Predict the structure.
Amino acid sequence: MVAEQKAVEEGEEYKMAIKLEKIKEEKKKNKITFLLKGSDEVFANTIRRLVAEEVPTLAAENLEIKENSSALYDEMLGLRIGLCPIKTDLKSYNLKENCKCEGEGCAQCELKIGIKSSKKGYVYAEQAESSDPKCTFVYNKMPLTKLLSKQKVDIQIVATLGKGKDHAKWVPGAAFFKKEPVISIGNVSDPQTVVTSCPQNVFEIKGNKLAVIKENLYDCHLCQKCVDLDKNITLEDSDNFVYSLETWGQLNNKEILTQTAKILVEKIEEMEQLI
């Protein structure tokens, strides 16, 4: 994936070629790691902030607690439900401020979920009934509360699209980055000590010599422990960034990155109109 970043400096336009190279994808962790080339800290941090603050997701906004005799107070139960991630279909729902109903509430901007149980034991997210089968709680076995004999819960939830800048419950995931590590190895006197001391398992021994495990290189935290053990090891950082994105499950990583790029373009166009 290659894009061009344009900027103006001292009246002259210049272009910065930005390139993304996927390093690895860990589907069980909902995490993707890629190399960001041709950029700087400002652009990298812009992407991080757009992911956290501008990409919309569904989350519980209004709750009607008809009955709750569990050990959790209504406020505690409401906060817990509010932070449970909900699978989000951005093609089917609008932000309330952009909806044709003008914020009054309709099927295009509100998702209704009901939770009702009187069975002794834990009440799990999978027991919730959603008005849209595509949009349910992400983690089925997430416990919401626990009921004893003769206790009940009956809750009606209205979920809406929102953004992380307004509340953390709408944040789609965590985006973070670091400099790309560059390791050079000379004549190391005690390779085994370096291998066992590295917290990220970056090194191995090949032919009695210290070597870098290529697939683990980008796990390096630049802690400098290897350099402290042997001065024949140098650890520097390049101009590239190792970028990681871990979704909470409302959207997949591709959807988050696509939405981030779309929002970035929209904001640039808005700025151009002001200039």
